[in-house]
Protein 1
Amino acid sequence: MAVRVIKEKCKGCGKCKKVCPFEAITIENKIAIIGDGCTNCGQCVESCKFDAIEQDKDETKVDLSAYKGVWVFAEQRAGVITPVVIELLGEGRKLADAIGTELCAILCGDDVEKLTKDLIAYGADKVYLAEAPELKDYNTDAYSKVIYDAIDKYKPEVVLYGATHIGRDLAPCLAVKAATGLTADCTVLEIDPEDKKIKQTRPAFGGNLMATIVCPKTRPQMSTVRPGVMAKAEYDKKHKGEVIKLKVKFGKNDIRTKVLEIVKSKGNKVSLTDADVIVAGGLGIGSKDGFKLLKKLADKLGGTIAATRACVDAGWIDHAYQVGQTGTTVKPKIYFACGISGAIQHVAGMQNSDIIIAINKNEAAPIFEVADYGIVGDLHKVIPEILEALK
């Protein structure tokens, strides 16, 4: 065991038991006993004024001072930067300024150097560029090797990823390679003014509370951030930056899989994260036909429809339209919540909208607590009146 009690010194005061965050310590016969729940966090060692608890020295202790800079993974698909990258650059700039360091982006692909100009215009002071035919399409082995090699060489202090399908696959792989922590689906990122650590806040226990997580002993500090949560960086052509080309070389067994074909699903493209106006429906719309009325309002305002998980589970609409903790996080200018009760899991995905308009027959519905405007009434009567007024 990495943490041990020196019985001759232990007084059985119970201070270590009180400070243990994992309840792994008990007091038996006036001696502290460390159980299997111990995670070697060291809280008990620091609290013992009798020096009765010792901890093995960590020979792999990280020199935190060697790590500098805030990095953003510049995810691109088919040569196009994904919108969440622009949000991460906006948030990354705030973090970098608070720490007093530079903002960087790391870009992987094949023939994507042209994208570095946009990344610099959106605020990146440096862009680390990795180009190779093997990087044309996202591949876990290829991308994780190239980016980890860059992390190992340049030692960023913070690395941010979008919580997209690619980001959620890549970030854990890199966290394991770098032997560091990862906080997923963050909604708030801020810098502790005292020690400059990043404080990462995310919903926990089904969205019923918010947990703030820190990574005090390892680097880099890693987070994935849901699209639509952070404000986008402003485009500035005058901003100057540097492009650093990375040497890319793969061994025979470095890449274990390859992309044979990319099949795009047929149907209407849903882009909830880019929509300025969203008209969302819950079970209160009555049936799948209720979305026809919502679509009339969305089309009139140049927006798109969306739905709660309950509607998706009922088979009324495709999952691509789902907003919420297990769907898409959105931040439109106007969000209509029609027949939506206001469960915390749904609210977590739309509460940052500029203006929220709730329509519900139940005047006590929780959705009214987060709404800027509330209309108590039958949406099947209210929406036609809104459409008539818009004429």
Protein 2
Amino acid sequence: MKEDHNVKEALLKAGREEFLDKGFERASLRKICEKAGVTTGAVYFFFESKEDLFHQIVAGTVKQLDSLAKELTAEEFEGSSSSFASDQKLMEFLWNNRREVKLLLEKAEGTRYETFKNEIFSQMETNFSLFFQKYGNLKEDKNLTRVLVEMRMRGYMELIYGGYSLEEVLRLSELIGYYADGGFQSLLEKLAKAPQAKQNKKQDM
């Protein structure tokens, strides 16, 4: 039993390395088995297919990330947690699971997770829109929201894959949080004045 567990763990480790290097579609089961030190047929004792191997590598991360995202979003909307604290919790999780996150965002084409990146992007757009509504800006600017989400995503990627230590990631995410919070408040003020400015312009004409 213990031997079977060790073989499965070896396959998961070798699979993670191969998928990170080649992506799912170009990854070779033969090479994965060679790295794990088992015959090619052994993989089917533990996994239904190459896609099932990929799934078992990332499934735990997906489940935890979904739970964490819901928890942090609820806390922010209820005011029980600051955006800074939420960002740090999220960044710590992403950094600790950065290999699986990279698989999901960049290497998942051909798997059940190939739309994962788009789903995350859409969820972030929804959250941005809800925050705008919560703080008084009821008219949604979809182009603005899309750009803001893209900026946030790129920031996350830099923190995760920029070679920073976890300590530095947490320090930077806190500072970025202060910057983002101040920018968000200024943006709300600007958007609140925009309709009035347009109205005044019409009256002048």
